[in-house]
Amino acid sequence: MADHKFAVIVLAAGAGTRMRSKTPKVMHELAGLPLLGHALSTATALGGDHVIPVVRHERELIVDYISAFYPTAVIADQDDIPGTGRAVECGLEKLPADFDGTVVVTSGDVPLLDVATIQAMVESHVDGGFGATVLSARFDDPTGYGRIVRDADGHFAAIIEHRDASDSERAITEVNAGVYAFDAKALRENLASIGMENSQHEKYLTDVVAAERANGKKVQALTVLDNWLIAGINDRVQLGEVSAELNRRLCAAWQRAGVTIIDPSSTWLDVTVSLAEDVTILPGTILKGFTSVGRGSTIGPEVQMTDSQVGENATLVKAHVTTSKIGDGASVGPFAYLRPGTDLGADGKIGTFVETKNAKIGAGSKVPHLSYVGDAEIGVESNIGAGTIFANYDGVNKHRSTIGSHVRTGSHNTFVAPITIGDGAYTAAGTTVRKNVAAGELGMNLTPQRNIADWVINNRPGTKAADAAEKSKN
Ligand code: UD1
Ligand code: CA
């Protein structure tokens, strides 16, 4: 394909009414990318001369996305004339007037279509001298798709939309995948000639095929054997089905790459996730965005991680983790909530019922039980006692706390930020730390315990507690 000129038009202007959503159909998410992202990634990877998404419905939102992630794409706007044929006409206007190569047309709502399939289609199209090539597939249930009509000798003749089809045409199980290669010049001419005489009063791209054939061009339908490749998403049932299939494929690819995934059906991976060899994923785990996991780490059961990096030989159990870093050999959970900016050093620990945010916890340091660590920096090999709260918020502003290395803080402390605790310092159980504790000091603010004799007998007479106290005195 390298020496052949081609452009890819990606259709994304439709309203997607069957999704019943405020979000335009092509912006619905599948494995971490909008449907359109899947289509544009493939279109871009083909290495053609032009990638032209056609937009209209919810234009601003879609254009913002395309400009951010596919800046080389040239956006075409569809006008008020509806239909896939009109969309392609609007896309063609963005090509140089003398462009005479191949125009590939794909849809923003067909996310699993891959580069190899399109390349094979274009090669067959160019080598065979066709005016139009259409991908088709055989579906047990072809409802909703356009049907491929063949003539008596089995030659591809036309595409009839489901809603325009007769009963006998509806019985045809070969469907139009919505993926095409056209000779640019023939496409321009034939698009100009087709009308809108159909049930939707739209200009159908599918009518070009019959027009080309009538004008003496060779046309072909190439049948794809893997039906998932061309699955179109029109409603949320199809979105769910394609999601599950893509996830099965992603899990299988990682399993082949050396990752143990105990239960692919309860493991959900975005396409952007990266896993090293000998990672183990236990059931109920969801890895999203630019999350990466290093060799030998075990994730799950029940971990959700977004845009986070885990080092080697780390362990996470029942945790919800966003935009965080977890060092080599570190352990997290069960029942931990790591909010953005958590950075746990090598061999560190964030234990049970612990919430962290904007917290750098040094190598070998541990926050094992029932604590909140917000806006803090903790040095190496320190231990934060059970039930500690970093009180970072005074109701107006957030403040930072700095804890040194080799620090031992007692259970049930409150650190009223901003405070600093020096290297090697200790604090006593139950301390509310409002003043800095210097290196090596013991911080404490307990008043001595006083026991008041007969307080219960005098103040709670007649209670079971008072009776028990009385009895034990006699
Ligand atoms: C289309 C095909 C059908 C095929 C199916 C495969 C036509 C007329 N029909 O039907 O034969 O079996 O795809 O999935 O082409 N779009 C625009 N502008 C428009 C209308 C649609 O850009 O005016 C875009 C949509 O955003 C979508 C794509 O074209 O990405 C397909 O549109 P959709 O309405 O989903 O067509 P189908 O009814 O699925
Ligand atoms: Ca569709």
What does it look like?
This protein has 474 residues and is an alpha/beta fold. It is built from 10 helices and 35 strands. The strands form 6 sheets. The chain has a 19-stranded parallel sheet that branches. A 7-stranded mixed sheet has the order 5-4-1-6-10-7-11, sandwiched between helices. Strands 29-31-34 form a 3-stranded parallel sheet, with no helix packed on it. Strand 8 and strand 9 (156-160) form a beta hairpin. Helix 3 (84-92) packs across helix 6. The longest helix is centred in the middle third of the chain and has 21 residues, at 236-256. It is elongated and about 110 Å long. The mean pLDDT is 96. Calcium ion binds at residues 109, 232, 234.
Overview features:
474 residues; binds calcium ion; seven-stranded mixed β-sheet; 10 helices; alpha/beta; 19-stranded parallel β-sheet; binds uridine-diphosphate-N-acetylglucosamine; 22% helix; single chain
Arithmetic mean of pLDDT: 96
- Which radius of gyration do the C-alpha atoms yield? 32 Å
The biggest sheet amounts to:
19 strands, parallel
Which oligomeric form is depicted?
Answer: single chain
Number of alpha- plus pi-helical segments:
10
Instruction: List how many beta strands DSSP finds.
Output: 35
Question: What is the fold's blueprint, element by element?
Answer:
Layout: E1 6-12, E2 29-30, E3 33-34, H1 35-45, E4 50-55, H2 59-69, E5 76-77, H3 84-92, E6 102-107, H4 115-127, E7 132-138, E8 147-150, E9 156-160, H5 167-170, E10 174-183, H6 184-193, H7 207-214, E11 219-223, H8 236-256, E12 260-261, E13 268-269, E14 274-275, E15 280-281, E16 286-288, E17 292-293, E18 298-299, E19 303-306, E20 309-310, E21 315-316, E22 319-322, E23 325-326, E24 331-332, E25 336-338, E26 343-344, E27 349-361, E28 366-378, E29 389-391, E30 401-403, E31 414-416, E32 419-421, E33 426-427, E34 432-433, E35 442-443, H9 455-459, H10 464-473
Parallel strand pairs: 1-4, 1-6, 4-5, 7-11, 12-15, 13-16, 14-17, 15-18, 16-19, 17-20, 18-21, 19-22, 20-23, 21-24, 22-25, 23-26, 24-27, 25-27, 26-27, 27-28, 28-30, 29-31, 30-32, 31-34, 33-35
Antiparallel strand pairs: 2-3, 6-10, 7-10, 8-9
Helix pairs in contact: 3-6, 6-7
The protein binds uridine-diphosphate-N-acetylglucosamine (UD1) and calcium ion.
